[in-house]
Amino acid sequence: MRHHEQSGREPTSAGNGPAGRRVLNLVLAIAVICGAVAAGRLWDAGSRADRELAVHRHQVRATTTGRAEEPPAAVRLGATPRSVAPAVWEYPDHVRRSGTVPVPPQTPQGRTVTVWVDDSGAPARPPGGTAERVLTTLAGGITAAGAVTASGAGVLFLVRRHAEGRRLAAWEREWEQVEPVWSGRLRRGSGPGPGDE
């Protein structure tokens, strides 16, 4: 109680006051830095993967052998529903291939379309684009920053809780000393002395 009486205000526990705000700001700064580093690494890895994939992806001209069909309901729930049609193409040179390829809606039979194939000539997804890589990078950076922030907040909470427990225990010990004097009651375990009666 001496500290309280001398300063005229309650002592602050960890997490309160200027020191607590500085620690919180430090945690947030570290979270932003970690998020930026994670985003940078994801961007580099995505760029490298897209470059490596682009080497094994090839655009070829295909001719549809049937009308475009609407995609099944399960496919339509995806990000970009595409119609599909049977088609023929050549890849590698002079090797005739056939299969179902994505086409614009209502593409008629006999239409020439551009499709992506892999090194063996099978239909394949195109190399990743910048927009896809930006979304992946942002999601990864935000996730990393959020994880660091949550971890830091958890540590601050535990430190604050521990400090609060110690502060309350100290106040309890001080109150045991002050309360009997303040209330005029005798302390526990101290009975009237031999000359008090």
Give me some keywords for this one.
disordered N terminus, four-stranded antiparallel sheet, alpha+beta, 15% strand, 52% helix, 197 residues
Compact overview of the structure:
Helices cover 52% and strands 15% of the residues. With 197 residues, it is an alpha+beta fold. α2 runs antiparallel to α4 (130-183).
What is the secondary structure topology, with strand pairs?
Elements: H1 2-7, H2 17-55, E1 58-64, H3 73-76, E2 83-90, E3 96-103, E4 112-117, H4 130-183
Antiparallel strand pairs: 1-2, 1-4, 2-3
Helix pairs in contact: 2-4
If you had to describe this structure to a student in words, what would you say it looks like?
By secondary structure, the chain is of the alpha+beta class. Helices cover 52% and strands 15% of the residues. The protein is built from four helices and four strands; from the N terminus they run H-H-E-H-E-E-E-H. Strands 3-2-1-4 form a four-stranded antiparallel β-sheet, with no helix packed on it. The radius of gyration is 36 Å and the shape is rod-shaped. Residues 1-14 have low confidence and may be disordered.
**Oligomeric grouping of the chains:** single chain
Average pLDDT over all residues: 83
Helix content: 40-55%
Enumerate the spans where pLDDT stays under 50 for 5 or more consecutive residues.
1-14
Count the beta strands. 4
Report how far the terminal alpha carbons are from each other.
33 Å
**DSSP strand (E) fraction?**
5-15%
- The main sheet orders its strands as 3-2-1-4
Question: Globular, elongated, flat, extended or rod-shaped: what is the shape?
Answer: rod-shaped
Over all CA atoms, what is the radius of gyration? Answer: 36 Å
Q: From the helix content, strand content and strand pairing, which structural class follows?
A: alpha+beta
Q: What is the makeup of the main sheet?
A: 4 strands, antiparallel
Number of helices: 4
N-to-C SSE string, H for helix and E for strand: HHEHEEEH
